[in-house]
Amino acid sequence: MARALIAAEAERIQPIIALNKSDLVEPFERAWAKLAPYRRMHHGVLPLSLKASGEADYASLMKLLAGKSTLVLGPSGSGKSTLTNLLVPGATVLTQEISQALNSGKHTTTSTTWYWIDEARTTGLIDSPGFQEFGLNHIAPMQLAGLMPDIAEHANDCKFYNCTHLHEPGCGVIANVASAAAPEGISASRYKIYGELFAELSQKRY
What we know:
- The structure is a single chain.
- By secondary structure, this protein is of the alpha/beta class.
- It has two domains: 2-127, Rossmann fold (3-Layer(aba) Sandwich), CATH 3.40.50; 141-205, Ribonucleotide Reductase Protein R1, domain 1, CATH 1.10.40.50.
- It has helices spanning 2-10, 25-34, 36-40, 54-65, 80-87, 149-155, 172-175, 188-205, and strands spanning 16-19, 44-47, 69-72, 113-116, 124-127.
- The strands form two sheets. The chain has a three-stranded mixed sheet, with helices on one face. A two-stranded parallel sheet has the order 1-2.
């Protein structure tokens, strides 16, 4: 998800994070808690229960998607095809239960398809295949901080103009990584993602 959000930020695309299966109370609460850093970044986080409350979800989604073209992106088994069937009743999209043995979804969508949601053809939905990785090869390592809102918020507070935010003294980002004393800072998991992606992007360029 972090990779897709970075790519969206680079292209100035407004993302919405949809968290499905809110009817599964305990698993949903754990997943919702993990999304706290993204809610603090003011990303839209929408709770859904596509199989349990179709009409309510349909109204919420249509309000957000009206007049736009929206790409549905996410791992297999997350409910993309169920969402497409809800918004486009005539779509012949296959749905499949999550594999209990592998605890992961099987690929039921094998091609990218554009659907018009409304008769006026002003609201489009693009259903994509499930993915395992989202490539960021088009992004330079030094661009990365500016494309992660929680990192970018502190990236201009560094002592050095070319700070990588990984080890430099006087780094505004490092100083604001969450701790027991300052739990509302940049989450440790998000900072770890930044470091891993910076290393990955650096290796592929040099």
